[in-house]
Amino acid sequence: MEAFLIKGGRPLKGKVGVSGAKNAVLPLMAAALLTHEPCTLEGVPHLRDVRTMTALLKALGAQVKREGERITIHTSPSSAWEAPYNLVKTMRASILVLGPMVGRLCKAKISLPGGCAIGVRPIDLHLKALEKLGANISLEEGYVVATCPRLKGNTVYFDKVTVTGTENILMASVLAQGDTILENCAKEPEVQELAQVLRAMGASIKGEGTDTIRIHGIEELKGYHHRVMPDRIETATLLIAGAITGGEIEIEGVIPQHVEAVTQKLREAGVDLQVERERIKVKGHNRPRAVDVTTLPYPGFPTDVQAQFMALMTLAQGTSVITEKIFENRFLHAAELQRMGAQIKVEGNKAIVKGVEGLKGAPVMATDLRASASLVLAALAAQGTTWISRIYHLDRGYERLDEKLAPLGAHIERVKEKP
Ligand code: UD1
Predict the structure, then answer these.
(1) Does residue 160's CB lie within 6 angstroms of at least one atom of ligand 1?
(2) What is the band of 117 on the pLDDT scale with cuts at 50, 70, 90?
(3) Which atom of ligand 1 is found nearest the CA of 92?
(4) How remote is the CA of residue 133 from the centroid of ligand 1, in Å?
(5) Contacts of 230 (CB under 8 A, 6+ apart)
(6) 275: pLDDT strictly greater than 70
(7) Does ligand 1 lie within 6 Å of residue 327's CB atom?
(8) Greatest pairwise CA separation for the chain in angstroms
(9) Measured between alpha carbons, how far is residue 96 from residues 55, 111, 164, 170, 194 in Å?
(10) Which residue is closest in CA terms to ligand 1's atom 31?
(11) Whose CA is closest to atom 11 on ligand 1?
(12) How far apart are the CA of 121 and the centre of ligand 1, in A?
């Protein structure tokens, strides 16, 4: 296992580019199961989750070829239909193959995704929606088994806004018989991009980016060739890196509209931002102002940036309240930040963060993907050396973050974990 060794207290300076969006790539890779034609994705980041999805598609009989930032996926007509436990357990987003498999093959057997550090994260809404489209679902020895004749269009209301749930059922319904109406849908840019790509494959879809998506099922889909959008969570993380170190950096190749909820909060906190068409310049000052944040589905403040924003607020002038409304147990980073001198009190789904003048380096442990990013940010700002263990969590969703931060002046080293 690897760890980061970070010597903090240096303002970051320079230009940095953003990689392709993990949460867009994973559903798009799964969508390749909907056609027997080849599908090509450009701008695919080198991430552990992408490798897991690649292995999963291969286990399902697809050929997956990677050349640099391009991935080509070709699903054979006689695909396997079982997604094994050893792959699914390492990545919850594996559930994204369920919709396309049931949609095209009319059968799927997928291991139930395991528990997850940030909460229970059930898949009941995915299964309920598939049943509404006519699938028979049973649970057998830890596996979800779904079978059907051909799926049939229907109206599906999601009790809760779910990102992968919306994506899964969207993919299942494009090949269903008749019309499907999905209500209370997720509006995330990644859901919108999936709908656009499915349309390029020949699907008939209207309303992505709103609460209601309407799909008219068709018989067959073509392949696609698509460049994936920039990662908005990485963009936000880099913005906070500039702000928290009192640095001055330019983040290139971004879609500013996707991070508006974050840039608005950063401005409230007194961070200087200059937003252009595809770049954002950020300039941090001594200590930010304390601002309150509540996570919500898009276009609200993303839960995936909550931990990173908390790192910034640990150094604020005043006290901020961070309310987590998406996942029930997403404050595991608070205890680690406290080891570096932060003052945080967690009460239910609220974290009360009393800003301190400075953080001090300490040995800390990454507990989940975005929590790891918050520890990196805190370490960049802290005086002294921070040792962050278990950074495999970070490598799931950030492409070579250490190699992006080092040219900006960060002292960050990837080392072997202490025994
Ligand atoms: C996706 C993102 C993840 C992000 C999250 C919220 C991907 C691959 N992952 O995860 O990075 O943090 O959206 O923006 O895109 N829920 C149920 N039953 C279900 C499904 C969800 O109760 O069947 C609940 C969840 O426990 C959670 C809420 O709904 O409380 C939202 O979760 P959801 O949007 O489904 O998250 P993911 O799609 O797993």
Answers:
(1) yes
(2) low
(3) 39
(4) 21
(5) 18, 19, 20, 21, 253, 254, 255, 258
(6) yes
(7) yes
(8) 63
(9) 14, 12, 7, 11, 12
(10) 162
(11) 304
(12) 7
Cα–Cα distance measured from residue 62 to residue 172, given in angstroms and rounded to the nearest whole number: 18
**Which residue has 């009360």 as its token pair?**
352
Three-state DSSP at 358 gives coil
Residue 322 token pair: 């961070």
Q: What are phi and psi of 286, to 5 degrees?
A: -55, -70
Q: Which atom of ligand 1 is nearest to the CA of 397?
A: 11
pLDDT at 115: 47
Label the pairing between strands 225-227 and 39-42.
Answer: parallel
Decide whether any atom of ligand 1 lies within 6 Å of the 124 Cβ. yes
- Supply the residues annotated as catalytic: 116
Going from N- to C-terminal start, the domains of the chain cover 2-19+230-416, 22-227
Q: Which of 3.40.50.280, 3.65.10.10, 3.40.50.300, 3.40.50.150 would CATH assign to domain 22-227? A: 3.65.10.10
- Comparing 116-125, 136-145, 191-200, 237-246, the range with the smallest average pLDDT is 116-125
Closest atom of ligand 1 to CA, residue 95:
39
Q: Give the DSSP per-residue string, 304-329.
A: GGHHHHHHHHTTSBSEEEEE--S-TT
How far does the centroid of ligand 1 lie from the alpha carbon of residue 276, in Å? 31
Examine the pLDDT at 238 and tell me if it is beyond 50. Answer: yes
Angle, alpha carbons 340-342-344 (nearest 5°): 135
Give which of 248, 235, 359, 240 is closest to 12, Cα–Cα: 248
User: Which H/E stretch holds residue 246?
Assistant: none
Q: Cβ(312) to ligand 1 under 6 A? A: no
| CB 23 near ligand 1, within 6 Å | yes
Residue whose CA lies nearest to ligand 1 atom number 29: 162
Q: What is the mean pLDDT of the chain?
A: 95
Residue 327 CA, ligand 1 centroid: distance in Å: 8
Instruction: Decide whether any atom of ligand 1 lies within 6 Å of the 49 Cβ.
Output: no
Assigned superfamily of 2-19+230-416: Enolpyruvate transferase domain (3.65.10.10)
Choose which residue among 163, 229, 262 to substitute to test ligand 1 binding: the one with the highest number of ligand atoms within 8 A of its C-beta. Answer: 163
Predicted local distance difference test score (pLDDT) of residue 142: 85
| Alpha carbon distance 219, 238 (integer Å) | 43
Distances (CA, A) of 269 to 132, 324, 378: 46, 19, 17
